[in-house]
Amino acid sequence: MDIIRTNTALLLSMFLMKGYAAVDPVAWSLFPEKGFPEVSRGETTSVVYTLAVNPRFPGPVVLHTQFDKIGGTFAITDKCNNVTVKPGGKCQVIIQFTASKSTPSSIQMSYQYNNNVIKLSRLNTSVTEVQENVVGAISNLPTQFTLSNPEQQPVFSVTYTNKGAASVMGYAGNSAGTNLLSATPESVATVSVVAGGNGCGTINNPITLAPGNSCSISGRLTPHAVGNLTVGGLFTYNNGANTVNPTGETKVVNGSGQCQLSASTNLLFHSPTYQYSDNVLQFKFTNPCATAVTLGTVSYTYTGASSSITPGEQYDQCSNTTLATNDSCTVLVSVIPQAIGSLSVSAQVTADSMTTTATASTTVQAPGYTHKVTFINQCSFPVWYGVSQPSGSVDPTQNPSPDAYLLAPQVDGQVSAAKSITITGSYNGQFFPRTGCSQQSPSSNFICATGDCGSGANAQCPNGNVYEPYTRVEETFTSTSQGGYDVSLINGASIPAELKGLGPQSSQSSSPAAPYVCSGAGAPIQPPYTPFTPQYPPPPPPAGPNNPPLTPLGSCSWQYTAPSSSPLFNFVSNTTTVTDCSSCSSPNVCGLAFQSTPSTGNVVLACGNLLGYWTINQLCSGNVTYLGANPAMNPSTVFNCNSPITNYSTQSYPTGTTAYDIYSCTPQGSSLESCYNNNNSTCCGAVDWNTTMPYLTWETQQAYTSNTDWINGGSGSSTSRLSPTPQQSIQWLKDACPTAYSYPFDDHSSTFNCNTSDAAQQNQVNMDFEIVFCPGGVIGALSQNP
């Protein structure tokens, strides 16, 4: 009986082994299926291999991987090597490629299990060289428009951008002064330049395009017959030696009796698009009809990779709006992919019972987690990113030069300019935007209107000094981890900026700091967060709200309303020096400007372009010297910077305490310390931003007490008052951006962290980050030409 049982077991075992041998115990897949997408020099792309163990296999499999690399720079995140995978389980290998040169590169992965070695096909990379000249792009061209019933006359734009390192002079059209725009064949439709719509010059009045700058020309199409149509533009430069001729395709069709809106996507997904990145898309709807139309509510859908979709209600110009003929409106929506793979997001709106849809698509890839920082420009003007170099922190920008830091302006319908650096060691400093930069010659200093850092000819900041005011983006790295990150307006502001870690939100929902995990500091649209009941650390602070609202972090409008509308808060270019503001006329703005270069610190009252905003913290710091002709406009006098605090308060402060000390929260003995840390009546700050009316943003802790001098500008009936009050001097900054620092003790509403690649916060990684300048194209009231 035992012999029969043994033989039966042997036969059954042989049968089962034969069954398992008929299938591969380990299967593999590649995303994207065709391998590495084509990239330009300086860009990064990646592929993901997934190894999966057949669920029918009788036991776990130990996997080993190897790689054969030829040329190029590859970074591998291998979660399969020497890993035991159970039946039905899987693991992933992420291979990241950075295109530093155009020579061929390739990589081949092999994996091994149970003495079996599987060599996968070699993956080749494709790198395109970016031509350093003028490039053209057509935007807002509909896919089709109607000949009649009703007739549509759509308006489109052609934008030319100087991608080179030197200025070029040119004009729209040819040397005969014709062919500014074209429509072929003209029997189908003709094109005309919209009145006042040529910003690209003519043969008799050419323009100069500085590096990174753009110009646009708008045209209107008039249909004549049904058929396909090619629309083009022409820009001639370098004394006629060079031309650029962008084209686009559309067609004329017969109408259905109803006129339909046209739709386009102005702001696309970031390229490349990373998991957990905040992509603020802009969709545009245009009424090409002969009569006005009323729109319904714009709605959003997506297909593909799981994503967080948050409409920007404050930026919705379209819902329930009436558009006149040829008028347009735009909407913004925040899209944060939560998974990798293909992704499409659409905006739909109905007008006169017809639904119009605009769509943006991308392929989402996993971050490499190598401490890579990507700078993205969505401003309509060029921006040069800056990296401060305080002691022990090094700017890793390769081959520094003005062109290396340059981010070209955003062009509607085109991918935003992006450049990346990788922090390989420690870094404790700041990143920042620079605008209005120029260089007299290749050997002269690189000087900027905002964010100037005293750089030489190569545009690299020589140390940690950057001349305020500017928008500060702060971050700390070590070789194996990273600290907190934030956006700061304490010493002033220039263009908007968003900084976000590319990780998931925390699942540790009982922590009051949970909303600040991997969220966007400075984001114009904050996504909703699952309501939670935070447990404040002991001892308990004064009572606050038990739960934050659905969107606990405030969205940044980047619209500033200065206290008392004082012009001294305006940071302007020195177009015209004045003694008072009465002579300033629009579009110029009255404010304080640097007399010459920012490095001098000398300021005067002037009329010019609005570049940013000063704060009392900076104006009273001693780093600014007023040289204006009108002493009544001296900020030190206006804001009583050096006046003793005893002029305004009946409370007891150390001798020598000034108004500036309470404005800046500079501790004096035991006074003017943070009100979050003690209950001293002469502490500094803090207003609980999550109890203010209106609600501004969530706080990780409530204040213990408050200082009446800080809130009211003084105390006692017989004393004068500081104007604006210290609270008012920062409230306007917090209103503009609730998630940015407005004063030194603003930690509990402005400090973010992102250290892990999983929501349970178990997998520590070298986090990657994205910094977006003018996120969503938002610039507030700042000049379009800084």
TrEMBL record:
What SUPFAM superfamilies does UniProt report for this protein, alphabetically?
Osmotin, thaumatin-like protein
Alphabetical list of Pfam families matching this protein: Thaumatin
Alphabetical list of PROSITE patterns matching this protein: THAUMATIN_2 (PS51367)
Its ancestry begins with: Bacteria, Pseudomonadati, Pseudomonadota, Gammaproteobacteria, Legionellales
Region: Disordered; residue ranges are: 529-550
Descriptive protein name: Thaumatin domain-containing protein
Q: Which organism is it from?
A: Legionella sainthelensi
> What InterPro entries does UniProt report for this protein, alphabetically?
Ig-like_fold, Osmotin/thaumatin-like_sf, Thaumatin
